């Protein structure tokens, strides 16, 4: 018996000595190595302070409900009439079987309450059966919490917001509800309200119901197909359809079109984010126009309307407005860029770089912004970049040139220099302090670098499009460097395991301007110093994004292939003239193999169509589908359903003067096409 006793003592000693994460790592929500000083504090130059274990908070609502159930059971036993807290749906005699003083904390009483709430929800006619998961999940997750240490080893495993195979639906909802990358909900207050709502589902506030269903929709959107099958036992598409339908009903229930509640608008915004992959950009742009008009009616775009708001409410309004505007701007890039609301006509300030725990209800003075990354770092950095862009001439030249008179800027500083200075500021102020091993920080680093490269390329077009002279070699080299940077940043995002939970957002940012700029340049100048490097960069990005072509993406893939093969065909022609051997880049080889397979699938003899086999397959004799048998979101069709063969430059329809920049934007592009459909993974 000595051995078991010693083992028990050793286990107890080991458990009592478990080291907690330091205070700063808990506040910043990053993984701590639990050495003092820890690596993160040493890197940041901060004093490392070991956190003390907080006393477990008792779930007061649970205790009260358990007592009420016990007293109600006593009244039932003695045949005393009373009005129960909830409509009885089952026999509640089980809590009294062991006596009133023998109900363990978190034991049978907890399960009884949750089972009762689940059954009550089934009786509610206006909520679909699937909605019970979310409320059951919220209450059960909170009740069953075994540790208040926010940086426990269990939480470290899911710091990246991505679910493990062993997790269930409760973890899916909680992680996504509390740690959303856009930070348009306030975690501490929302969690408390959900706990209260879970105890009285029949009287849940319609706005809160809509908000929770919208969070649920975005949560499912961020999961992979395999995770949906493992967690829900259902295909991802079916889940999204079901919960988006429930969210629509909840939005109608809170009268979204007439509501002046900020949280109702938040629910609408998250719902629109969730339907984006399968919605035509023109249609989604119209719906976003409604959302923005609601926001303007509420006044979240106008700082003068913030005087009556608490510091917490003011910050949440700023977060929501900037999220709406940035989302709308991207959708307008894919439909009609001139309708974008990213303009200098409103004065909402950029949100503060503060964590949710620093914003408490009732405070009148907002906290000071942090100089180090917080959970808001992604939202803050992209808002600062968007704030610069909305006042920039290169942006307004493409949207509404008359607004240039409203945009304050220095007449003595070149806009290219201002962009370079902004990039340096963002790097030094935010990105240099980010931990590249943290998923959110990694997303912030490479998403913002890609966004900066994209806007520097647009500024390059704006600067030289009005000039009648051809660009010099150095000027063209600058534009090529921006295009290469776009693709390299995007490849880093697509290939890193850290972004697995954020791929739904990465797919939304297809670097189409970079592809077009490089391919046009390679077609005009097929043999230059950067040629091989450009084909290698495009091959890497192609392998990360477009290796697997689905059946409904084939027509668009064929058109994209035509663009690539046209550029490569010029290079092959030069090689034949010079009689030099030439090895096709991986992107060309893969495209040719896929096209040959498509021909075989359609019953065509590939060797008959292309006598030389795959090596001779080129854009000139590539059959282009002239009509779709189905509608593809994001495609603007011509009369009779024909595929249009022209495009204003990647969604900026009226970029005049491109001929002087060696860019033939109408030669082989598609009309206002959402190119993201070519590579939209994991819907």
UniProtKB/TrEMBL annotation:
Alphabetized UniProt keyword annotations: DNA-binding, Metal-binding, Nucleus, Transcription, Transcription regulation
Transmembrane segments: none
InterPro entries in the record: Sec_Metabolite_Reg, XnlR_reg_dom, Zn2-C6_fun-type_DNA-bd_sf, Zn2Cys6_DnaBD
Composition skew (Acidic residues), residue ranges: 149-159
Region (Disordered): 82-111, 142-164
GO molecular function, one term: zinc ion binding
Annotated SUPFAM superfamilies: Zn2/Cys6 DNA-binding domain (SSF57701)
Composition bias, Basic and acidic residues: 82-93
Protein location: Nucleus
Gene Ontology biological process terms in this record: DNA-templated transcription
Domain Zn(2)-C6 fungal-type: 21-48
CC annotations in GO: nucleus
Alphabetized Pfam families for the sequence: Fungal_trans (PF04082), Zn_clus (PF00172)
UniProt-recorded name of the protein: Zn(2)-C6 fungal-type domain-containing protein
Organism: Penicillium crustosum
């Amino acid at each position: 018996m000595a051995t078991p006793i010693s083992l028990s003592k050793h286990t107890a000693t080991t458990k009592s000595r478990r080291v907690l994460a330091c205070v700063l790592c808990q506040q910043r929500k990053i993984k701590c190595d639990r050495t003092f000083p820890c690596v993160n504090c040493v890197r940041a130059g901060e004093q490392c302070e070991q956190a003390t274990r907080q006393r477990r908070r008792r779930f007061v609502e649970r205790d009260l409900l358990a007592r009420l159930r016990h007293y109600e059971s006593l009244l039932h036993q003695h045949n005393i009439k009373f009005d129960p807290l909830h409509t009885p749906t089952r026999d509640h005699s089980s809590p009294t079987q062991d006596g009133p003083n023998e109900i363990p904390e978190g034991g049978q009483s907890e399960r009884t309450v949750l089972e009762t709430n689940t059954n009550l929800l089934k009786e509610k006619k206006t909520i679909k059966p699937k909605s019970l998961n979310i409320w059951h999940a919220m209450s059960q997750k909170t009740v069953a919490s075994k540790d208040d240490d926010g940086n426990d080893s269990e939480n470290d495993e899911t710091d990246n917001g991505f679910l493990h195979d062993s997790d269930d639906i409760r973890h899916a909802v909680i992680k996504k509800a509390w740690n959303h990358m856009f930070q348009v909900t306030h975690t501490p207050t929302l969690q408390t309200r959900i706990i209260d709502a879970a105890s009285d589902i029949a009287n849940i506030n319609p706005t809160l119901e809509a908000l929770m269903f919208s969070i649920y929709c975005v949560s499912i959107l961020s999961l992979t197909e395999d995770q949906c099958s493992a967690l829900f036992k259902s295909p991802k598409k079916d889940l999204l359809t079901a919960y988006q339908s429930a969210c629509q009903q909840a939005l109608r229930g809170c009268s979204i079109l007439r509501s002046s509640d900020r949280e109702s608008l938040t629910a609408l915004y998250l719902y629109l984010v969730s339907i984006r992959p399968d919605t035509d950009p023109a249609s989604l742009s119209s719906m976003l126009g409604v959302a923005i008009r609601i926001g303007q009616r509420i006044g979240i775009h106008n700082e003068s309307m913030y005087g009556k708001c608490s510091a917490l409410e003011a910050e949440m309004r700023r977060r929501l407005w900037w999220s709406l505007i940035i989302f709308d701007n991207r959708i307008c890039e894919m439909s009609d860029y001139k309708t974008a609301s990213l303009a200098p006509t409103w004065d909402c300030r950029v949100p503060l770089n503060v964590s949710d725990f620093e914003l408490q209800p009732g405070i009148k003075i907002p906290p000071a912004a942090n100089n180090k990354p917080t959970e808001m770092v992604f939202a803050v950095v992209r808002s600062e970049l968007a704030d610069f862009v909305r006042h920039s001439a290169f942006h307004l030249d493409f949207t509404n040139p008359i607004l240039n008179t409203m945009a304050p800027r220095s007449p003595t500083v070149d806009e290219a220099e201002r962009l370079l200075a902004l990039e340096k500021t963002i790097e030094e102020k935010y990105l240099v302090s980010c931990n590249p091993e943290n998923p959110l920080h990694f997303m912030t680093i490479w998403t913002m670098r890609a966004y900066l490269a994209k806007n520097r390329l647009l500024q390059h077009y704006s600067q030289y499009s009005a000039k009648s002279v051809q660009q010099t070699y150095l000027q063209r080299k600058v534009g090529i460097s921006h295009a290469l940077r776009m693709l390299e940043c995007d490849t880093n995002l697509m290939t890193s395991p850290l972004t697995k939970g954020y791929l739904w957002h990465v797919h939304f940012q297809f670097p189409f301007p970079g592809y077009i700029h490089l391919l046009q340049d390679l077609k005009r100048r097929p043999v230059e110093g950067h040629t091989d490097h450009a084909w290698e960069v495009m091959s890497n990005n192609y392998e990360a994004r477009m290796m697997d072509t689905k059946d409904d993406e084939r027509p668009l893939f064929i058109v994209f292939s035509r663009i690539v093969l046209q550029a490569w065909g010029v290079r092959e022609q030069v090689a034949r003239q010079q009689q030099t051997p030439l090895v096709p880049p991986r992107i060309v080889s893969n495209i040719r193999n896929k096209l040959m397979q498509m021909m075989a699938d359609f019953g065509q003899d590939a060797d008959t169509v292309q006598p030389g086999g795959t090596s001779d397959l080129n854009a000139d004799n590539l059959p282009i589908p002239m009509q779709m048998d189905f509608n593809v979101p994001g495609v603007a069709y011509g009369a009779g359903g024909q595929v249009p063969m022209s495009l204003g430059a990647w969604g900026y329809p009226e970029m005049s003067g491109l001929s002087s920049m060696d860019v033939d934007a109408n030669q082989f592009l598609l009309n206002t096409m959402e190119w993201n459909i070519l590579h939209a993974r994991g819907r």
